[in-house]
Structures are given as structure tokens and as C-alpha cells.
Design brief:
It contains seven helices and 18 strands. It is an alpha/beta fold.
């Protein structure tokens, strides 16, 4: 009788190995120096997936080609850079968050947003700007989270950050570059258009120091779940209830749609094709020469250069306003905490000690703010010069 159960341990071992291979495949970069889609482990699955129809990995190449450039970039292989994203665009900055049965799910405003915000990883190159490294596993959003009572923020997982079954992202202090973080004032978190509230990245160092990680990413029924920000915290900070939506596979690619309480998104099950490559692509050196201006000024053909230059100026005004507003709020918050703590102690000496400690912290905070102001002023001046150079170039030199 006992011998009839010999297969149970074997079955458990096979299941565990399959799960490890599955989640090892969803990485931002391969040790062999190529895209994750070139990895031999990419085809492993621990069980049936709730995806749409099967697609070859070349689907990414064809689908994204009209909206950007494919670049052969070491050590990642073929990566994709978006075009016409406007002034100082960042991943996960133009759209909004919704709570679904897979946790926090990003709803992008970009027409191509059903792919790069739900598969793969985002990286940064000082010349190219943002680039996307393909990956084959769908997730509601591949981001890390930070927050406090004033701010909420998220950052795309950079190339090299892996997600594996059993990994505890709650305690993980990933090495995420400062410029990856997208911060907003917390009360705006449930707004339908977050882009106007995204703080300039010069604020990131100060805000990172004031916030803490809130990662909670795991698997359930072979699905990736991202519950980084607790629902109670979101309700408290935004002062609003959190609607719940169900994910539904869309029949075709395109912008994600909200229909009633359903999120309709195209999420194909990608199978690897190691021979696949974009029909048109640039090598890394050529891409750096041709694409570098896009970080600041990337006008669409159907719009005038003057209109695009005005958009840059408008965004710079927004950034300055956000910078000054949030800096002032931080000082007021620190002063309020000082006054509250001073009331909780008795005696002149104890109150003086509290005041002295907080005045030192406020002085340091003002110094940080001064550095931020200098940095954003210098960046804006450089960007204005670049726009001016572009718009005043001879017609045959304009891109």
C-alpha cells in the first residue's frame, strides 16, 4: 500500500523545479548578455496561464516598431526606445493605477502601453534615455513602491532585478537608481491622470530618505500579484474608497480599456523564438547619435516646432511649482512635528532640546532644497538651450 504513493515526492520535486525555472525566466537581463527572450528557460510554465492567445516573441518587434526604435544594445540584445513621449518622460508616469484581482495594475495612456509596462524591464542610458528590455511573463506592473504620509512613489524594476517564487520583496532593498522613482503627493494617487502631479526627479533623493519600501509581490494560481501599497494606507491618504476591477483578456492589442468594473487588456502568452529580431534596428552607437535629443525635445511631425517648444516651457513651469509647493510642505510638516513633540514634554530644558534637534533637521532640509532648486534650474537652462538649437536649425537639419 505504501509503495503506491512513491510518485508524490517526485511530483512535488518536478513542480518546484518548474516554478523556479518559470520565475527565473522573468528577468531584466540574461547572464549571456542577450535579451531574456533568448534564454533557453523562457518556455517553462508551472501551469496554465490566464493569458490571451499565443504570440511569437517577434510580436513585440512588430507591435512596437511604429512607436519607437529597436536598438541592439549590449549587454541586453534588442531593446526598444519610445518616441514622441514629450518632455522628460518616464515609465509609469502617464496613466493611472487601479486595484484589480492581480493587485495594483497600471493603466497607461500610451497606445502601446499594454506591452512595456506589463512585460520585461526598463533601463536608462545617459544618451539614449529610457529603453525597454523584453520579457515574456505578464504582470500587473513590474514596479517597486515607496511611501509616507505625504508621498507615494513607484519605480520600474531595472534590468537585472529578478522575481522568483518565494522571494520576499517585502524586505528587499533593491538597488534602484534615483531617477527611476516616480513620486506624487499621496492624495493624488487615485487620480485618473497622474502625469501633471509627477514631481521633478531632482526631488527624489530627499523623498527617498523620507519614505519606506512597501513591496508585496507574490504568485497566486500561476499569476503575478503586486500588492505593494496597502489598501488601508491608500484609503487613508487619498480619503477615498478603492474601486475593485476584474481583469479581462482583450481580443486585440491596443490601449487598455475600462468597461464597467472590468479592465480589458491584451496580454498574449509569449513563446520564445531565439531567431527573432526586429526588421529594422539601430546599433548602439548610431542610436546614441540619433536619439539623444528625444529626452528633451522630440516633436511629432504633425505638430509645429513652436507648439512643442511651448509644451516644454509649460512642463518646466509645472515642475517649478511642484518643487516649491512640496518643499514648503515638508518644512511645514517638520515644524508641526516639532511643535507637537515640544508639547508632549515638560520643562524648559526638555522643550529646548526638542526645538534644537528639529531646527538642525530643518536647516539640513533647507540645504537639500537649495541643492534641488539649483539642479532643476541648471537642467531647465540646458534644456531650453537644446530646444532653441533644435528649433533654429536649418529646415534640412530638423528631424
Amino acid at each position: 500500500m505504501k509503495k503506491s504513493f512513491w510518485f508524490i515526492p517526485l511530483l512535488l520535486v518536478i513542480t518546484a523545479i518548474s516554478a523556479v525555472y518559470f520565475f527565473a525566466s522573468e528577468i531584466g537581463y540574461s547572464p549571456r548578455g542577450r535579451s531574456p527572450l533568448d534564454s533557453s528557460v523562457q518556455g517553462y510554465r508551472p501551469g496554465p496561464q490566464e493569458y490571451g492567445r499565443n504570440e511569437d516573441s517577434s510580436y513585440f518587434h512588430d507591435r512596437l516598431a511604429p512607436y519607437g526604435n529597436w536598438v541592439d544594445l549590449n549587454p541586453y540584445g534588442y531593446v526598444w526606445t519610445p518616441r514622441h513621449m514629450g518632455y522628460r518622460w518616464r515609465p509609469y508616469s502617464d496613466g493611472h493605477w487601479v486595484w484589480t484581482d492581480d493587485g495594483w495594475t497600471w493603466i497607461a495612456n500610451e497606445e502601446w502601453g499594454d506591452i512595456p509596462f506589463h512585460y520585461g524591464r526598463w533601463g536608462w542610458d545617459n544618451d539614449l534615455g529610457w529603453f525597454w528590455v523584453p520579457g515574456s511573463v505578464w504582470g500587473p506592473a513590474w514596479v517597486s513602491w515607496r511611501s509616507n504620509d505625504q508621498y507615494m512613489g513607484w519605480a520600474p524594476f531595472p534590468p537585472g532585478v529578478e522575481f522568483r517564487a518565494g522571494m520576499n520583496f517585502n524586505s528587499s532593498s533593491m538597488d534602484i537608481p534615483l531617477n527611476f522613482w516616480v513620486f506624487i503627493q499621496g492624495p493624488h494617487f487615485q487620480d485618473l491622470d497622474l502625469n501633471p502631479y509627477v514631481l521633478p526627479f531632482e526631488r527624489n533623493q530627499t523623498i527617498v530618505n523620507f519614505t519606506s519600501m512597501h513591496n508585496n509581490m507574490y504568485t497566486r494560481n500561476n499569476r503575478i500579484i503586486n500588492e505593494g501599497m496597502g489598501l488601508d494606507e491608500v484609503r487613508r491618504i487619498t480619503g477615498r474608497a478603492v474601486p475593485v476591477y476584474a481583469l479581462q483578456n482583450a481580443a486585440q492589442a491596443g490601449r487598455t480599456k475600462i468597461v464597467g468594473q472590468q479592465i480589458q487588456i491584451y496580454r498574449p502568452d509569449i513563446r520564445q523564438n531565439v531567431a527573432a529580431k526586429p526588421k529594422v534596428f539601430l546599433n548602439g552607437d548610431r542610436a546614441r547619435q540619433e536619439l539623444a535629443p528625444a529626452k528633451v525635445f522630440d516633436p511629432r511631425g504633425q505638430q509645429s516646432l513652436a507648439a512643442e517648444a511651448a509644451a516644454v516651457q509649460k512642463r518646466q513651469i509645472q515642475e517649478k511649482t511642484l518643487l516649491a509647493t512640496t518643499q514648503a510642505q515638508e518644512i511645514r510638516t517638520m515644524q508641526l512635528k516639532r511643535d507637537q513633540e515640544a508639547k508632549q514634554v515638560s520643562g524648559a530644558a526638555a522643550k529646548a532640546k526638542v526645538n534644537t534637534a528639529y531646527e538642525a533637521r530643518i536647516t539640513d532640509l533647507r540645504k537639500n532644497h537649495a541643492v534641488e532648486t539649483q539642479q532643476i534650474t541648471a537642467r531647465h537652462q540646458n534644456d531650453v538651450a537644446q530646444v532653441k538649437k533644435f528649433t533654429q536649425a536649418p529646415p534640412n537639419k530638423k528631424k
